[in-house]
Design brief:
This protein is mainly α. The protein has 16 helices and no strands. The longest helix is centred in the N-terminal third of the chain and has 39 residues. The radius of gyration is 31 Å and the shape is flat.
Length: about 425
C-alpha cells in the first residue's frame, strides 16, 4: 500500500527557490506561489538599493581610501560613513538570509505536499512566534548605532595616523596597520629611545599595582571591620555600622577634592597640622611615590564602606550551628574563619569583588580629581600617577594623539574583558545550579 502524499509535488525543487531568492529577494517566494510575501521582499530590496545605494558606495569608498583630496575630503567623516555602511549591510545580509531560508522552507513544504498557510495565517504565526523579536529589534538597531558604532570607530581609529599634526580636513588620514601598537610594545625610536614604549610600560605597571593594592586593601579593611562589628561581644553595633558607612554617603568627588586640599604640600592639613608636630613635610603632590601612596590611602577610605556593608550582610546569614559544630570538633577561631567564614563570604560576594578590581582598573575620577595624574615625569608623556584610562584622556583632550589613544583603549578593553571573563568563568556563582 502506497503512503505517498497525493498532494506532494516532487517537481517543485527547493534548490530553484534558493537560487531565485539569492538572485533577487522575493523571487523564491513567487516561485512558491507566496505572492504577497514575495512582493514585500522585492519592494524591500529595491527600496534598500535605491535609497541607500549611493550612500553605501560612498561609505565603502571612504572606508578603503579615507579620501583622496586634501582640504576637501574629511577622513573622519568618510570613516564614519563607511562604518555605518557596514552596519547597514549587516542588517541587509541578515534579512537576505531570512529571505533565502523562508523560500527553502516553503519549497520543502510544497514538495512534501503540506498545505501552505494563507497570508493571514502566516502573519498570525509570525506575530505569535516573533512577538519578542518585534520588541527587541528597535533596541538592537539603537544598540548598533549608539554602542557598536562608537566601538567600531575606536577600533578603526587605532589603525590610522590621526594625531595633532595630521588632522582632517587639512590632511588626509592613512591606514597604518599595527604601527601604533608596535610603538607601544617595541623600540621604534632611534638609539633605543621610544617615549611611547617607556610611558606605556610605566603607566601599565602602575595601573596593575594601583588596582591590586588599592582594591585588596579596601576589601581587607572592609572584611576586618565587618568581622569585628559582627562579633557578639561588640555593643552598639548599629551606631558603629552607621559611622563606618558614613564615608559612603558623601559623594566621592567631594571627598577626593577635600583630600586633595588636605594633602597639599604648602597649606594642606596633613603637612601643616599633623606632620609638622614631628618636623616632617612630605611632597605629596610633587613626588610620584608619595602621590601614589596618598591615592591608595584615599581609595581605601572611599571603597571600604561598600565592602563593609556587603560583608556585614553576608556574615549575618551564616548559620551559628556551623560554628557550634566546629567548636565541638575542637576548631579554634582561625580554623573557623578559614573553613567557614571566608569560603562562605567569598562564594557569595566573588562577582562583586571582581567588579571592584575592574572598577579600580578604570577608576578615572580619583586619579584626575586628586592631581590630574601628576606630577610630571621626565621622558614620558604621562603623569607619574596616570593609569591607562587617565592617560587615554590626556592623549585625547590634551595632546590630541587620537590614534594612539584608540590603540591604548583597545588594549585596556581587552585586559578588562579577558580578566572579567576568566574570573567569572571560574566563579561558582555564575554556574548553573545543577552544575555546582
Amino acid at each position: 500500500m502506497s503512503t505517498a502524499n497525493p498532494t506532494a509535488k516532487q517537481s517543485h525543487n527547493p534548490k530553484t527557490a534558493v537560487i531565485l531568492s539569492i538572485l533577487l529577494a522575493g523571487l523564491g517566494q513567487l516561485y512558491n506561489r507566496r505572492y504577497v510575501k514575495g512582493i514585500l521582499f522585492i519592494i524591500l530590496e529595491i527600496s534598500f538599493i535605491l535609497t541607500l545605494g549611493r550612500f553605501l558606495n560612498l561609505g565603502l569608498w571612504g572606508l578603503t581610501t579615507l579620501g583622496t583630496m586634501e582640504g576637501t575630503d574629511h577622513s573622519v567623516v568618510l570613516l564614519i560613513y563607511g562604518l555605518v555602511s557596514l552596519i547597514l549591510i549587516a542588517f541587509f545580509v541578515t534579512l537576505y538570509i531570512i529571505n533565502v531560508k523562508d523560500a527553502k522552507r516553503d519549497a520543502l513544504r510544497i514538495q512534501k505536499g503540506e498545505r501552505a498557510p494563507t497570508f493571514r495565517e502566516a502573519a498570525g504565526n509570525v506575530w505569535d512566534k516573533g512577538f519578542p523579536y518585534f520588541f527587541v529589534t528597535p533596541g538592537l538597531i539603537m544598540l548598533a548605532f549608539i554602542v557598536i558604532l562608537p566601538l567600531m570607530f575606536t577600533v578603526a581609529l587605532a589603525f590610522t595616523d590621526y594625531s595633532q599634526y595630521n588632522q582632517p580636513p587639512r590632511a588626509l588620514l592613512s591606514w597604518v596597520g599595527f604601527d601604533n601598537f608596535a610603538r607601544l610594545f617595541f623600540e621604534t625610536g632611534g638609539a633605543g629611545n621610544n617615549i611611547w614604549q617607556d610611558t606605556f610600560i610605566s603607566v601599565f605597571t602602575w595601573t596593575i599595582v594601583w588596582t591590586v593594592v588599592a582594591t585588596t586593601l579596601q576589601i581587607t579593611l572592609g572584611l576586618f571591620l565587618a568581622l569585628i562589628v559582627n562579633d557578639p561581644r561588640i555593643k552598639f553595633k548599629r551606631l558603629i555600622r552607621t559611622i563606618l558607612i558614613l564615608p559612603w554617603a558623601v559623594p566621592a568627588f567631594v571627598t577626593i577634592l577635600v583630600f586633595a586640599a588636605m594633602f597639599n604640600d604648602r597649606f594642606g592639613a596633613i603637612n601643616t597640622d599633623i606632620l609638622a608636630v614631628f618636623n616632617l613635610s612630605i611632597p605629596w603632590l610633587q613626588d610620584p611615590f608619595y602621590t601614589r601612596i596618598a591615592l591608595i590611602m584615599i581609595q581605601t577610605w572611599l571603597g571600604f564602606p561598600f565592602v563593609f556593608a556587603l560583608f556585614t550582610g553576608i556574615l549575618q546569614s551564616i548559620s551559628k550551628e556551623w560554628y557550634e559544630a566546629a567548636e565541638v570538633d575542637g576548631a579554634n577561631r582561625m580554623q573557623k574563619f578559614k573553613s567557614i567564614t571566608l569560603p562562605h563570604v567569598l562564594y557569595a560576594t566573588a562577582p562583586l569583588l571582581i567588579m571592584q578590581y575592574a572598577g579600580n582598573f578604570n577608576n578615572f575620577n580619583i586619579i584626575y580629581l586628586f592631581n590630574e595624574g601628576g606630577p610630571a615625569v621626565r621622558g614620558q608623556n604621562a603623569g607619574g600617577t596616570d593609569i591607562l584610562i587617565s592617560w587615554v584622556y590626556d592623549l585625547t583632550f590634551t595632546l590630541n594623539q587620537y590614534s594612539m589613544a584608540a590603540a591604548i583603549t583597545i588594549i585596556l578593553g581587552l585586559i578588562v574583558t579577558g580578566f572579567a571573563f576568566f574570573q567569572f568563568r571560574k566563579t561558582r556563582s555564575f554556574k548553573e545550579e545543577g552544575n555546582l
